[in-house]
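User: My instructor asked us to take a sequence, write out its structure as tokens, and then describe one feature of it. I'm not sure where to start. Here is the sequence I was given:
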Amino acid sequence: MAPVVIPGVIVSYITGPVVLGYMWSYCLYGMLIIQVYLYSEMFPNDSRGIKAFVWVLFILETIYTLLITMAAWNDYGPGWGDVDTLSVYDWSWVPLPALSGILAGMAQSFYIWRISKLTTKRWVPVLIGCVMLAQVTFACYYGIRVSVEGRTFTELFALSPEITSSIENLSKLFLIGSAVCDLSITTTLVVVDAIPTNNRAHQ
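Assistant: Let's start with the prediction itself. The structure tokens for your sequence are:
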């Protein structure tokens, strides 16, 4: 079959990153399955709350993987060779931004909880928690805004510059907020872990 050609557009630049994203997502989901199995085997005496948290997170990740599988199938299954499918956000994409933000927030909230147990400086977990809540809020609002304004690139580009700009800014705020939260958690855990146990007790 001859490659699909769209005047002025390099199709592989659109489809290639998406295909790689699907592949990496499946790879990471496989790692998650192994991690959940190892956790169940190695920490059977953990509290019910922690176990419930792990399984809820795993179930939501499974739902996320099912949704991107539907999106991949609709694009590269019945939509194979149809150029129009490249310009449409499938319905399965609609909950992904919000679900992505919620999953990130859940993982970050666990580390925030751990930080609160390792340090007596309460403002640190509170500050990181505020960033986490902000990025979850931006992710959910971004998903709602995109689904309301239209699920095709044509509809999004046809919107007024103010609306298009606000959607792009929401996406940036979600991604930047998530990155800032992750970096803050990592930095805090490294700093706290570097403090000797006897000194930590006196803080």
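For the description part of your assignment, you could build on this observation: The chain has two domains: 1-86, 94-203. Try explaining in your own words what that tells you about the chain.
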